[in-house]
Amino acid sequence: MLSPEQLLSGLPAELTLRFFATFARFEFALKHTGCLRRIEDGAVAEACRVRLRARLPQDFFETVKAPGQACAIPCRA
């Protein structure tokens, strides 16, 4: 597995900062909603898909697939 330094090496500072800020928001949201679980004696955390799915509206994925909501490739406005 690559270290964070290896993963981010050579990326522009603005892109690295944008990634960090976005990742931190998702991590906070998962913690805040109780959808983050600890594994490997608490050393590693991962999203608990069961809790996350239970908390999302039933039509969530259909809604975010709508144009302008979310896409596999970064949306360009």
Structure keywords:
77 residues, mainly alpha, two-stranded antiparallel sheet, 4 helices, 10% strand, flat
How would you describe this protein?
This protein has 77 residues and is mainly α. It has one domain (11-65). The chain has 4 helices and 2 strands; from the N terminus they run H-H-E-E-H-H. A two-stranded antiparallel sheet has the order 1-2. A hairpin with a 4-residue loop joins strand 1 and strand 2 (44-47). It is flat, with a radius of gyration of 16 Å. The mean pLDDT is 78.
Q: What is the number of helices?
A: 4
Low-confidence runs: none
- How many domains? The number is 1
First CA to last CA: what distance?
34 Å
Structural class: mainly alpha
What is the C-alpha radius of gyration, as a whole number of Å?
A: 16 Å
Strand order of the largest sheet: 1-2
- Major β-sheet, in short? 2 strands, antiparallel
Q: Let me know the average pLDDT.
A: 78
Overall 3D form? flat
User: How many beta strands in the DSSP annotation?
Assistant: 2
Report strand %. 5-15%
